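Q: I'm building a small set of examples for a reading group on sequence design. Run inverse folding on the following structure and report the sequence directly after it, with nothing in between.
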């Protein structure tokens, strides 16, 4: 066989392998987009996502195309992994900041679409998760230390219910690759919030949620409130017989007319987001009550923050 024929044959084999690998990755990505355990999609109420306001604030090592921020990237892709260069002195670590402290109960790790076929042993083998409510550099406590498998799209780590503002993830070791280690998308969510919402709605027929925040004097939802909206959307997906009235409420600041209009627009914003999450418009209604229905007469900032809320009410 001539040398040019050898080169041509090598190119054809490489192309076929790459195409098969891409197709395999695409299939896994599709599975990840629909990861479901106990009838819950782990991207619902996921706090470790850019759209919820999470951001990477420090990273010890990454490589071009496989940056640290991929672990919180909302857009799936076969290259959405964090690949770190190994060091004898320090294990690779990443610190993720949430927009505010959140109670976390569960982490989910994806390693099903990493590059084990090309770099055998590259997948992280044991990870340590630390949390802090003090600062990005101080006050960390060990929350979990877990061995993870290769080639799994859904690895659930249940943790002690704790509040965290900063999350440090350390890749302690890998499965044997001498130079690199990598890990895929990481999710964190609060199963307690989801379950409590469902129980309250079933028992009382309504749910007051002060934890839905808007920009000041605006009906624009703040990113940190998206997980709460998505938890409500998932409840509606699971309880298909439920219909909701979304009520907007304000505090006593401002005129009656202004607050009525602002609360109506905020309730409408929530409804539109639920529709975008796949809930039929026919199951949703909205209304604004301004400051006319306070849940407390306390005029302090804490009291007013309780009155600034969205209420979800079951209707026929």
């Amino acid at each position: 066989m001539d040398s040019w024929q050898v080169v041509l044959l090598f190119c054809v084999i490489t192309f076929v392998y790459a195409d098969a690998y891409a197709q395999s990755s695409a299939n896994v990505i599709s599975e990840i987009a629909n990861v479901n355990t106990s009838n819950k999609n782990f991207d619902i109420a996921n706090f470790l996502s850019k759209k919820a306001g999470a951001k990477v604030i420090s990273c010890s090592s990454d490589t071009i195309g496989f940056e640290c921020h991929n672990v919180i990237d909302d857009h799936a892709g076969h290259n959405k992994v964090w690949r770190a260069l190994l060091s004898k002195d320090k294990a690779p670590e990443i610190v993720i900041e949430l927009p505010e402290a959140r109670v976390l109960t569960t982490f989910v790790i994806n390693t099903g679409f990493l590059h084990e076929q090309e770099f055998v042993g590259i997948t992280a083998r044991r990870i340590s998760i630390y949390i802090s409510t003090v600062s990005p550099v101080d006050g960390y406590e060990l929350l979990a230390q877990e061995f993870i498998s290769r080639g799994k799209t859904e690895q659930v780590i249940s943790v002690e219910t704790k509040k965290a503002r900063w999350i440090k993830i350390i890749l302690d070791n890998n499965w044997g690759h001498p130079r690199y280690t990598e890990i895929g998308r990481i999710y964190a969510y609060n199963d307690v919030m989801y379950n409590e919402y469902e129980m309250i709605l079933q028992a009382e027929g309504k749910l007051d949620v002060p934890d839905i925040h808007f920009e000041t004097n605006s009906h624009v939802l703040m990113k940190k409130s998206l997980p709460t909206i998505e938890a409500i959307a998932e409840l509606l997906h699971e309880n298909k017989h439920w219909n909701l009235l979304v009520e907007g409420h304000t505090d006593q600041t401002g005129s009656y007319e202004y607050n009525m209009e602002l609360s109506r627009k905020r309730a409408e914003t929530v409804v539109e987001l639920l529709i975008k999450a796949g809930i039929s418009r026919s199951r949703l209604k909205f209304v604004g009550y301004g400051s006319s229905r306070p849940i407390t007469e306390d005029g302090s900032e804490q009291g007013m923050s309780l009155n600034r809320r969205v209420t979800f009410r079951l209707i026929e």
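Residues 119 and 251 are 57 Å apart (CA to CA).
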